[in-house]
Amino acid sequence: MAKRSNKQSRSKTNRRIQDALQIAEKSERYQRSSKDQGSDDSDTEGAIMNAKRYVQGDYGDDNEEFVDEEIDSDEAFGPDDDFEVFKSKGKDKTTAKGKGKGKPSHFEEEEEEDDDSEDEEGLVTLSQAWDMDDAEKKKANFSKSTQQLILNDNIGSGESSSEVDSSSEEEEEEDPFAEMEPYDEDEVELNTVVKDLDDADKNKKRILVSTKGEEDEYNVPTTGHKLSLKQMLEATGDSNIAQDNFLLRRKLVDGSESATMAVPLPKRLQQRKEREAAYELSKAEADKWQDTVKSLREAEHLVFPLQPQKDSDEEIEEPEAKELKPFTELETAVNKVLEASSLLDDKKESTFEEMATAKMDPADLRRRQNELRMMRELMFREERKAKRIKKIKSKTYHKIKKKERLRTEQLVEGDESDDEEHDSKRALERMSLKHKTNGKWAKSIIKSGMSKDKSVRDELEETLRQGERLRAKIQGDEDYSDARSISDLESDGEESDPELRSKIGKGVMNMDFMKKAEAKQKAANKEELERLRRFQEYGQEDDLDEFRNESTSANIVLNTGRRVYTPGAALEQKEIEEENVKVLEEHEIDNAKSLTNKLSKTAHRERSKDAEEKVKESESQNERQSEEENNSTANPWLTITTNGSTHKSKKVRVIDKDSSKSEKAAAKLSKTKKRSNAHLEEDGPIVDMNERLKIVDPYGSDEDEEDGSNVRMFKQTELIREAFAGDDVIDEFQKEKEATIKADGDKEVDLTLPGWGDWAGSDIKKKRRRKTLKVAGVVSEERRKDRQLNSVIINEKVNKKNLKYRTDKVPYPFETMAQYEQSLRTPLGQEWITRTTHQELITPRVIVNHGAVVDPLDAPFK
Amino acid sequence: MSVDGTRNVDSTSLDTTRKPKYGRNKQLGAKLKRYGRERKEALEAARRTDILLQEEPGFLEPENEMEKTYEITQKALRENVDVGTAAKGFELRLKDYGPYSIDYSRNGRDLLIVGKKGHVASIDWKKGQLNTELHLNETCHAIKALHNDQFFAVAQKKYTFIYDKLGTEIHRMKQHIEATSLEFLPYHFLLVTAGQTGVIKYQDVSTGTLVAELKTKMGPTLSMAQNPWNAVINCGHSNGAVTLWSPSMPTPLVKIQASIAPVRALAVNREGNYMAVASSDRTVKIWDIRTYKEVDTYITPIPATSLDISDTGLLSVGWGPHTTVWKDIFKKRQDHPYMTHQIRGSRVQSTKFVPFEDILGVGHASGFSSLIIPGAGEANFDAWEINPYESAQQRQQNEVRALLNKLQPEMITLDPNVIGTVDTAVKQKSMLPDGDETKDAEGEEPDEEAKLDRYVPDKKGKQTALQRHMRKKTQNDLEERRLRTERNLKREQEISGRLERGQEVQNPALDRFK
C-alpha cells in the first residue's frame, strides 16, 4: 500500500509542481535521504505533498477538479480495489508489495526526526498525526483552515487512520490477504508475511511527511524532536512513575525503544483460536450440567417440580429458635446465670461432670468405681434373698395346698398322666356311648331280649357300670363345690362383724345412711345363706324337681367336662336304671353262642374298626393282609361301596376272632380273594387301545363267590368288544392321520399339459418331458409334533387370524428376541401382580404435579 | 386365574447367574436391567403376599390307615360339620321333570337347574331363595350361566335361548340349532354351543355377533368342556375322538383318539394341564394335554355320564346312581376314591363343583343334591376376579371392567403366551406355483421354451411410460409418432438389457397364447 501511496504521491507532485515550497522541501528531503541511504528510490519523492492544498480541495468532489484518471482510481481505491489487485496478481505480487509495504516505524520516526530538525515547525509525525484521529479530522474538515500533514493516499477513508502506525498498518494490510486466501494456503501465507517483514527491515523507505501550517492546538510545531513518552514523564518530575511505567520498562528490556511487536496471526486463524478457546470455556460450563442431565435421563420417574418446595414454617422457625436472643433485662439476667452455671448447654454440663473425675487420681477413681460396683452387687443379692424368703410358705400352707391338689387329682382320676390318651379315651367314649343304654345297639339288645348271650351281657354290664361311675364322679364333684361355697359365704359373714367395721374408720362408712344400707345388705345375705343351707339339707330330689319344673332341658353328663342338654334326659335316666336291672337279671340266664352273627349285623362301625385292627395284627403273621391290600390296590372300585357285603364280611371275622370259626372264615375269605387276585394280576387295569380290551368287572368278581367268575369276566369283555366292534375307530384314525401328514407335507405338482407344445405326426420324436413343481407344505413328516404320538393329530397350520397379534420382527429398541421377551415376562395387570408392584410398573415416567410451576433446572454447582 | 398371584410369572426364567448380553446399546442395557429388577421385585412382592391368603383348604384326613375317607357318609359329615356348612348340603326332590342338568354362576352364588322336560330354575342356593322358575314345555338339554348371575342360556329342543335372572326371555338364538351342550368363555364373552348338528358355534354375547361356525364333520357332538387356561374348547365325539377347537381355525387344533367308544363326558382342570375323558366303554381316562399323552385309566362299573374338576383338583365322576370324588388323581394313580355318594333309585346327570365352596352339586333323575366335599373349593378368592360376596354395584363395575378387558376371539390359541411375541414360524406358503422350483423330471436342462413357459405374474409399476403408451395405442394406425415411440422403446430396452421380451411387448395381444 505504501507503494501505491508512493505512486500516487508522485503523480500528485507532478501536478503540483508549481508549489515552490514543496519543491524545496522535496529537494531537501531528497538530499537527506540520499545521504542516509546510499541507494534511493525516485519513487519516494512523491511522498511529499501539500497537505494544505489537499485539504483545501474537499475530499470527495473537489478532488475531481484537478484530477486525472490515476487520481480517480486512487480515490476510488478501497478495500475492494485491494482485493482485485491481489487477486489478479497472485503471490508474485506479495513480495513486491512487501517491499513497499514493509515500513518499520522506528525507521520512519528516525527520518522524521531528521526532517523535523531541518524543517521547521508545523510538521507532525505520522503517529502524532494519527493520534489526533478522526475527531480532529472532522474538525479540520469543518474549519478548512487547518493545515495538516497527513499520509497521502487513504486520507478520505476512515480506515486509513490506522495505517499511520506501522504496526497497525501491517495488520491492516494483512487483512485483505487473510480474507481472500483459501484455507489451505494459510501456512504459506504466514511464512511469506514473516519473510516480508524481514525484508522490510532491509529495504527501508523513508517517507517524510511534513505539514506547514498554522499552529493551533492540534497542530503544535515542534523543533523536529519528537515528544516521547519519556520526556513527558520526566516532565512530571516523578521518577518513580517513569520507573514504574510498563511501557518504558519494556523498552529498556528490549534494549531499543521501538521494539517491534510480534506479528499477529491472520485474523481467520485468530478467530479460530478464539472460537476454540470460547468452546473450551463453554464446554467446561456445559459439562457442569452433565451429571445432572445424566441422572435425570437415567431416572425411572421424574416428578416435577424436582425439588419439592420446603415448608415455609420449617425454614423460618428453625433459625429463629437458634438465634433466640434474650430481649428483656430479666431474660438476659437469667441467661447469664444459666451460662455461668453451664446449664444452658448439655455439652458444658457433661464436661463439668467429667471435670470432677478428671481431677481425681486414677487410682482413686478406680477404687471409687469398685466401691460402687460392690454396693450394687450387694443390693442385688439382698433383693434376691428377700424374694426367695417371701416365697417360703408355712407348713399349714403346704398342707392345705396338698389337700387341694389331691382333691383335684381325684377329680381327674389320675388320668392326667397322658393328656392325649385321656382325650382319645374321652372321644372314644363319646363316640361309642359305652356308658349309656340309650344307643341303638343297647336298645335293640334290650328290646329283643338278646341278652342271653354272655358276652353281650358282659358288654352291656360294662356300659352300665361305666355310666354309674361317671355319674358318681359328677355328683361327687357337685357336692364338693356346694359345700365349699356355703362355707365360704359363712366365713364371709363372720368376717364382716360390726366391731371390726367400726374400727376401720369414721369416714363415710360410719354415716347413718351407709350403716342402714349395710344392715339391709346383711339381712339379704343371711336370707340367701338360709336358703342355700336348706337346699343342702333336702338335697337331690328338690333339685331334680326344680330342674324338671323350671326348664325343658336337663343336665346329662356324657363324660368328664362335657355336658349335653337334652329334654327329658332325667326321665330317660330313670328308664335306664330300670332297664339295667332288667338286663342284669336277664343276662345271667343264658349264654348262647349262635346269635353272634346276628348281632354283628347291627354292631357299630367304630367298634368293628377296633376289632379290625386286632384282626390285622393276627393276620400279619401269615401274609393274608398283604394279599388283601394287593387286592384293594388292584381295583379301587372294589372298595368304594359304603354299605353292603364288604362290611359284613369284616364283621364276621371280628366277632369270631376268638373262636376257631374265625380262622376258618378268614381262610375261606382269603381263598376267594386269592383266586380273584390271580386273574387281576394277569390283566392290568390300564387299557391299551390297540390291544384287545380286557376289563375287569369288580362287581362280577364280588358277586359270584367261587364258581365261574372267570367265565363271566370273559363274557363281559367279549360283550363290550362286540358292542364297539362295528366302528373301527382306531384304523380310521390312523388313516386320517396319514392323510393329514401327506396333505401337510411337501408336494410335487405336475404341470405338464398333455399334448401341449407337441407336434403331431409320424416322424416326430416325442419329447418326454415332465414339468413338476415342488410346493413346500406346512410341515414335513419328520418335523411334526405328533410324530411320536400314535393317537394324536396336531394341526400344524399357521393360524392366520392371530398373526396380527404377533410381530414378525423384534420391535425397535430390542436387539434379540430374548430381550424382547424379557420385557414381556413381567405381567402388568393387577390380577397377576401385587397392587404396589402394579402401581410401580404403570407409573408414567414424567409426572407434573398438578398446578406446580416447573422451573428450569437449577445450576448444578456443587 | 389370579387366585394364585404368581402363576403366570415364570420362575424358571429368573436366573441371575447368567449375565445378559446387551451389546453396545447402553440405553437398552439399562432398560433390560430394569426389567430384570422389576421382575425380581414383582416375584418377591407376590411371594410376600402369600400371608394374605389366610384360608387354607382342608381335606378329610384319615387318622389311621384303617380309616377311609370314602367311608364317611354325607349324613355323618353333616352331623359333624358346623351348622353353616351342614345347611349347604341339601337336597331338592324334583321327580317329575328330571333328569336335571345343573350349572353354577361364576361366583357360585346362583344355582341353575334344568330338567329334561323343561323345568328351569335359578336359585340363590345359599339364601335358599328362588330367583326364577320356568316351565318351558319342551326338551331342554343344558343350562349355562353367562358372565355374571344376571343371564343364563338354555339349550332347548331346537334353539338356544338366553334368559335373564328373572326368567325373561332375552334372546332366541336361531343360529344355534339343536344344541346339547353349552360352554361360556368368560374372558372372551363367547357362548359356545355344540350338539346334534355337529357344528360348534361361537356367539359373542357382548356384541351379539356369531363369531365362528366350525364344522366338526364327526357327527353329533356328545360332550364339550372348556380349557380354562387357554379358552380352547374340547369336544367329545361318538367315535371316541376328542377335538380341541379355537374359533380362528376351521380345523381342530388337536385331535386325540381318546378312546374307542363314544366320549360321554369331558373335564379340564383349571391349570389346563389335564383332561379327564369318560367314554361309553366304562373308562375314565386322564390325559396330559401339554404332551398329549395318556396318563392313567380308571374303570367305572357303569359308564360315567359326567365329570367335573374342582379348583383344588378334585375330580368328580357321576356314574349310574353313584358320584365318586377322586383326590390327587392327576398326581399319581389312586387306589381309593376320596369320597363317594349314592343316590338310590336315580341316575346322575351332571355334577358341578361350586366355586369357592366345599360343595359338589349333583343333578340327577329325581332332583338335585348338594354334597359336602371337604377341600373342594378354592379357599381364597380374588375379589378383582370373582367375588362371591359382591354387591350389585360391584357386579356392575366388574361387568364394565370385564368388557373393557375383553379378549378377542382370535387370541384363543393352544399356548396363550404366544400373543405379543415374535412369530418365528415359517409363513405358510401358498399353493401357487413359485416358478423357481420348476425343474425337468428327466433331469434335462430346461431349454428356452421352458423358460418362456414360466408363469410370470403381472407386476404393476414395472412398465415405463413408453410401454404404457404403447399398450394404450391401438395396433392399427401406423403413424409416424407411433413408429418413433416404438423405436425409442426398442432403444430403451436395448439400453436396459432387456431385449429378450421385446418381441412380446410389441405383440401383447398374442402373448397369452404362448
From TrEMBL, chain A:
Compositionally biased tracts (Low complexity): 156-165
Keywords: Nucleus, Phosphoprotein
Pfam families: Utp14
UniProt feature, compositional bias: Basic residues: 1-15
Compositionally biased spans, kind Polar residues: 142-155, 633-646
Phosphoprotein is among the record's keywords: yes
Biased composition (Basic and acidic residues): 25-38, 84-95, 422-432, 450-487, 603-627, 653-666
One annotated Gene Ontology cellular component of this protein: small-subunit processome
Cellular localization per UniProt: Nucleus, Nucleolus
Stretches for region Disordered: 1-187, 403-504, 592-684
Superkingdom, taxonomy of origin: Eukaryota
Biased composition (Acidic residues): 59-83, 108-122, 166-187, 412-421
A Gene Ontology biological process term: rRNA processing
UniProt xrefs under InterPro entries: SSU_processome_Utp14
UniProt xrefs under PANTHER family: U3 SMALL NUCLEOLAR RNA-ASSOCIATED PROTEIN 14, U3 SMALL NUCLEOLAR RNA-ASSOCIATED PROTEIN 14 HOMOLOG A
Protein name: BA75_04656T0
Organism annotation: Komagataella pastoris
Lineage: Eukaryota, Fungi, Dikarya, Ascomycota, Saccharomycotina
Recorded name of the encoding gene: UTP14
From TrEMBL, chain B:
Main localization of the protein described in the UniProt heading: nucleus
Pfam families, per database record: BING4CT (PF08149), WD40 (PF00400)
Highest taxon above the source species: Eukaryota
Ranges of residues in domain BING4 C-terminal: 337-416
Ranges in a coiled coil: none
WD repeats: 256-297
Family matches, as InterPro entries: BING4_C_dom (IPR012952), WD40/YVTN_repeat-like_dom_sf (IPR015943), WD40_repeat_dom_sf (IPR036322), WD40_rpt (IPR001680), WDR46/Utp7 (IPR040315)
Compartments in which it is found: Nucleus, Nucleolus
UniProt-listed GO biological process terms: maturation of SSU-rRNA from tricistronic rRNA transcript (SSU-rRNA, 5.8S rRNA, LSU-rRNA)
Name of the protein described by the UniProt record: U three protein 7
Source organism per UniProt: Komagataella pastoris
